[in-house]
Amino acid sequence: MYKTIIRPRVSETDGAGHINNTTLPVWFEAGREEIFELFTPDHSFKNWRCVIINSNIDFVSQIYYGREVEVRTWVNKIGNTSFILYEELHQGDTLCAKSTAVYVNFNFENQSKEVIPNEIRVELEKHLYSNDEG
User: Fold this and answer.
1) What keywords tag this UniProt record (predicted)?
2) pLDDT digit string, tens, across residues 3-18
3) How far apart are CA 56 and CA 67, in angstroms?
4) Domain extent for 113
5) Closest listed residue to residue 3, CA positions, set 78, 123, 90, 82
6) Do the domain assignments include residue 131?
């Protein structure tokens, strides 16, 4: 599992007193940074390989300003050219949101999907999700 700590900002708090729902996709993406680095170590958009093709979020509990949030990111499934992530946001002991995201290894120059290289697949496999983890 990959872990990322987020410090909620005042500007992310809405009129209802909790973190706005539009903030959560950004936080989930922040938890994917190490995965992006596997595919594009130089962070260059010219060489970018990860393209998101689907994303879903289940809002479970409210999140508040003033307390850190932990993003937990697992690999749920690895295909030939794509992979599925399972993610959770936790504030303290509370599960606040769950997400799935599907990414494709994409070559922008050729405008086509490509097979995930074996060395990346091996790294992704180290973070496979197990039901007793979440």
Assistant:
1) Hydrolase
2) 999 999 999 999 888 9
3) 24
4) 2-125
5) 90
6) no
